[in-house]
Design brief:
This protein is of the alpha/beta class and 487 residues long. It has 16 helices and 26 strands. The longest helix has 16 residues, at 297-312. The radius of gyration is 24 Å and the shape is globular.
Length: 487
């Protein structure tokens, strides 16, 4: 049994109306999810204010409200706690309600513009070979034994996070590896998670619709590493210029990885092919040979990040090497959708940096033309659209610009903003608003030895338009077209 007065710390409270020593059956910020005797934390959002939904929360059974607003006279008999920071208190209350589960887990946070999902998958696979390890990320929240719950956000909101952690602890998990988004850090979703390790994959332009400036975006990422204490570990990509800035701010131990000779974990030799990656790594514990089904240079960086984490967790080199060879690529991350006369690859790349990594990786391992199909999401960072166009024109042989998730934006406007980045001299492109038609056109163009890269949506099986969300899966479009035969 939890009581409301146990869940909120006194220094966070501005005013109280009513007796807060009441039993609370749950903590929730979504009024639609409120059940009998739940406490409703009315978050003041960017678009709507949660206080507007107090009546709905009460109708669903809420027995108390926590808000940045003073007690409302509209609900004179409702217990009401006014707090300084509603998001800060939501995290604190959720953690306390579930008995602070992060304190019972070795929590590893992975942050960076790109590479988080694959790195989390790699780390989970490696650590699972020793002790039961849970994971949270863009695709799902899961742990061994069959628990697998889809996620809507890269880093879920605090009540969902701590509820999952409590389940993981109950199931005997000792480790949790999780993607930590910049939004989650800024909105204090992970404020009450005790991280033992933080991994920095890389930093490039994205999410400026939310953060406004690159400096704000970086400061959000940096805040994860500032949470680490002397006994903790930071794992830093030595090849990224921002890695040095993070290191200067650390109050903990750290290990670096990268292609640089200064990196603690680096490849002495490596080979990339369409079969995967082979490399000889230098580590602080000696040399280790690795083999992986993952493709491309950027995935070797993800592998080295995971190796760094495993070493910090005292895993033996032989066990790490064996785990890497067994790792199956994460859905939507450089997945081969068709292999025949030509190759078709589906990937989640939705930033200019991720697109460049994808294209240069296949330029390195393929002899044929690179045909790229991509778009950019609507109602998201617009500044990256021309940059993505610039990268496409520089590294692809032919580009078909199409829709991603247009949302409320006009699809043709998004395409025009991408095309603006091509430059006047680039003519090897076409545009096709309908994504299915665009993919089919790319497959019809492909000749033996070519690679068709379909970027932007990866694992997603939907497409979001202004007035509806429809089922759409890049893999399904490819499979259907290849069954019918390409022109």
């Amino acid at each position: 049994m939890k009581y409301l007065d146990e869940l909120i710390l006194p220094h966070d409270i501005l005013a109280i109306r009513g007796n807060t020593h009441i039993a609370v059956a749950g903590v929730e910020f979504d009024s639609r999810k409120i059940e009998k005797d739940y406490c409703y934390v009315a978050i003041k959002g960017f678009v709507r204010d949660g206080v507007d939904f107090v009546a709905q929360a009460m109708a669903n059974g809420a027995n108390a409200v926590v808000s940045v607003h003073p007690p409302s006279n509209k609900f004179p008999h409702l217990i009401w706690v006014q707090v300084k920071n509603d998001r800060r208190v939501l995290s604190q209350m959720a953690s306390r309600f579930f008995n602070n589960p992060s304190q019972k887990l070795n929590v590893i946070g992975v942050t960076g513009t790109n590479g988080k999902t694959t790195t989390v998958g790699l780390i989970q696979t490696l650590l699972n070979s020793t002790v039961k390890t849970a994971a949270i990320g863009t695709l799902n929240m899961n742990f061994p034994g069959g628990y697998n719950q889809k996620t809507k956000l890269t880093t879920p909101e605090a009540p969902e996070l701590f509820a999952f952690m409590a389940e993981a602890v109950k199931a005997g998990c000792q480790n949790l590896v999780m993607e930590v988004s910049s939004a989650a850090l800024s909105l204090l979703r992970v404020e009450d998670i005790g991280f033992a390790q933080a991994v920095f994959t890389q930093f490039s332009g994205d999410h400026l619709d939310f953060h406004q400036t690159m400096e704000n975006y970086f400061e959000a990422k940096l805040s994860l590493f500032k949470k680490l204490g002397a006994e903790h570990w930071a794992i830093i990509n030595n090849d990224d210029p921002m890695g040095e800035r993070i290191i200067k701010e650390l109050n903990c131990r750290y290990v670096t990885f990268g292609f640089s000779e200064q990196a603690d974990i680096r490849p002495l030799k490596y080979h990339f092919s369409l079969d995967g990656i082979k490399a000889l790594l230098q580590t602080p514990r000696g040399k280790m040979e690795i083999q992986s089904r993952l493709l491309g240079r950027f995935n070797l960086l993800n592998i080295m990040a995971a190796v760094s984490s495993a070493l910090v967790n005292d895993m033996a080199l032989e066990k790490i090497s064996a785990g890497l060879s067994e790792f199956v690529p994460v859905k939507g991350r450089v997945n081969i959708a068709h292999a025949g006369d030509f190759l078709v690859v589906v990937d989640y790349a939705h930033t200019d940096d991720a697109l460049e990594n994808l294209l240069t990786a296949f330029r390195e391992i393929s002899q044929g033309k690179l045909i790229l199909v991509f778009g950019a999401g609507g109602c998201r960072d617009k500044t990256k659209r021309p940059r993505m166009g610039q990268v496409a024109a520089k590294f692809a042989d032919w580009v078909i610009v199409t829709s991603d998730n247009p949302r409320q934006d006009d699809p043709q406007t998004i395409i025009s903003e991408i095309v603006a980045g091509f430059g006047e001299g680039f003519r090897n492109f076409s545009s096709e608003i309908d994504r299915k038609t665009a993919i089919e056109k790319a497959l019809d163009m492909a000749a033996p030895g070519d690679v068709v890269l379909i970027a932007g949506k990866g694992h997603e099986d939907y497409q979001i338009f202004k007035d509806q969300t429809v089922h759409f899966d890049d893999f399904e479009v490819v499979n259907e077209k290849m069954r019918k035969g390409h022109a």
